[in-house]
Please model this.
Amino acid sequence: MTLQISDDNRVRTLVLDRPEALNAFNEELYLATATALREADADPDVAVVLLTGAGRAFSAGNDLKEMEARITDPQMSDQGSHFTTMISALTDLTKPLVCAVNGVGVGIGTTVLGYADLVFMSSTARLKCPFTSLGVAPEAASSYLLPQLIGRQNAAWMLLSSQWVDAAEALRMGIAWKVCEPDELLPEARRHAEIIAAQSIPSLVAVKSTLTEPFRDGIEAATARENAQFEMLLGGAANAAALADFTGRGKS
Model:
């Protein structure tokens, strides 16, 4: 299993569970998460979804070994990715999403926060959008959602620099709503999730719809722009060198 799922007080908790890979998303985890989000949305007894990670990471992002394999293996490169399946599920989610960032969040481990309604972050957690260091383009409509969430210049720094952002800076920027000590993170995130979950589900859905509907066209357009740029850069010299360095093939 790559995803733990549990219910308590109308809160469905999803725990990314690939700790040996720092909860990096492979195709199996993308599909499992997308399926779980859609099932939570359809369940009349679920009011709020809480997403966190097992072990010392929230998510180290896309599984780079699998990414390299998709580039070098013609059969894999011809297949679509469940990354888009998960982004569609996040975009379509009608119930509140609370994220508890328990450790490092890299790539999709950061950009997923653009779809959250509340973000809680451990004081020891860090975020990074490594796209320029990997020689690729942004993903998950982050080029649109991050400026909406944290302002253009904060978003520009995160997307252009490939540098770490610590919890205090994430709070200042506005990508995190609350920063907690590590042992208080899940209890605080759950306490707030249960406050929301105690409300009328149709009302929660109505509120979320009014908050998110104005952004749907922007997400769709940004996704198309990002995908076009990503496909153009994927497998290029900078990307190939970065992936080879990560997997060890670039070392003499």
